[in-house]
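Lay summary. Proteins are chains of building blocks that fold into shapes, and those shapes determine what they do. In this project we predict the shape from the chain. Here is one chain we studied, written as its sequence of building blocks.
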Amino acid sequence: MEIINSLLTLEVGASILMLGALALILRSFRLYLKKSSELQPKLAKVDKELTRLRETIGPKKKTINELNKAISPLREKEQEFDAFFQALRQIELDQEKEEVAEERETSAAIKRNLQRRSMGFGADGN
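And here is the predicted shape, written in a compact code that computers can read:
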């Protein structure tokens, strides 16, 4: 009975918990070492690629800035051409509307003349 009581003391329970925690820490550390050895080549590859990208981004930024400067006047011209195009398109639409109205008017006049002839009045309306 004394053996069981001595095993159930606070010190023994705390010692068992500490040993369990230590075993968990050692297990986690071992898994970390295993994973790090697997991931180290991948990390080196990604780091190398990142370095390459950082080195090549400088000239590309310079090229982008130069192209932006070259494009700036063209953007202004684009707005002018767009306004001009819209004005031309509106003129074309107005012209088409006038043509359609003129065709309707001509068609109506021909129809009236045909009706007058069929009624015997003649084409000139007399």
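What the prediction tells us: The radius of gyration is 46 Å.
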